[in-house]
Design brief:
Helix content is about 55%, strand content about 10%. The protein is mostly helical and about 180 residues long. The strands form 2 sheets. Strands 3-4-5 form a 3-stranded mixed β-sheet. The protein has a two-stranded parallel sheet with strand order 1-2. The protein starts with a strand and ends with a helix.
């Protein structure tokens, strides 16, 4: 069971889980469902073994993210652990429950693909606008030009120049190469 703020009570969930004859009841009090690492959740997942059934009052008590919920359900299935959501009638010990689980999995896969497509489109648009994606560059284009010129006109080694710049030789070479291809 889970309640997301300290003013809420878990009495309704506790009564339902007791009525379902749960052997052990775990809880997270004052923890949002969007938090994937929760003490009670971690403890219950750790304690489950093949043949057990994880019972929740309502699906959103396990988590709010569809992707996270489906990852948890897939993990349970791989471990041979059944799942029940009391208020939604999801029960993977039955054919209908497994069908509902399968439909949820299809929707989750679709959602993951949509998120991935939107992310890729956003990154492509950012690149078109000249935005650098990823970690900030350690060496600017101007610095790379100056370092390249120093390597060509002086006797300094790449290792010494990299040490002077406070970066690895590989980082220095990459910056110089990127600057040259940009010209």
């Amino acid at each position: 069971m889970r309640v997301s703020d300290h003013d809420q009570t878990e009495a309704l969930q506790l009564d339902a889980l007791k009525a379902a004859c749960c052997d052990a009841i775990y809880g997270d009090h004052g923890v949002s469902g969007t938090v994937t690492a929760r003490k009670g959740l971690d403890e219950v997942l750790e304690g489950l073994s093949e043949g057990d059934t994880l019972v929740v009052w309502k699906l959103d008590r396990l988590g709010r993210s569809t992707v996270h919920l489906l990852q948890l359900l897939a993990e349970l299935r791989e471990r041979g652990v059944d799942f029940q959501a009391l208020t939604q009638g999801i029960d993977t010990t039955t054919a209908i429950g497994r069908m509902l689980y399968g439909q949820l999995a299809v929707f989750a896969e679709f959602e993951r693909e949509q998120i991935s497509d939107r992310t890729k489109a956003g990154m492509a648009a950012a690149r078109k606008r000249g935005k650098h994606l990823g970690r900030p560059r350690m060496i600017t284009a101007e610095q790379a030009r100056r370092y390249a010129q120093r390597l060509e006109t002086t006797c300094i080694t790449v290792d010494d120049l990299a040490a002077e710049a406070g970066v690895s030789a590989q980082t220095l070479w990459r910056a110089i190469k990127t600057q040259r291809t940009a010209q």
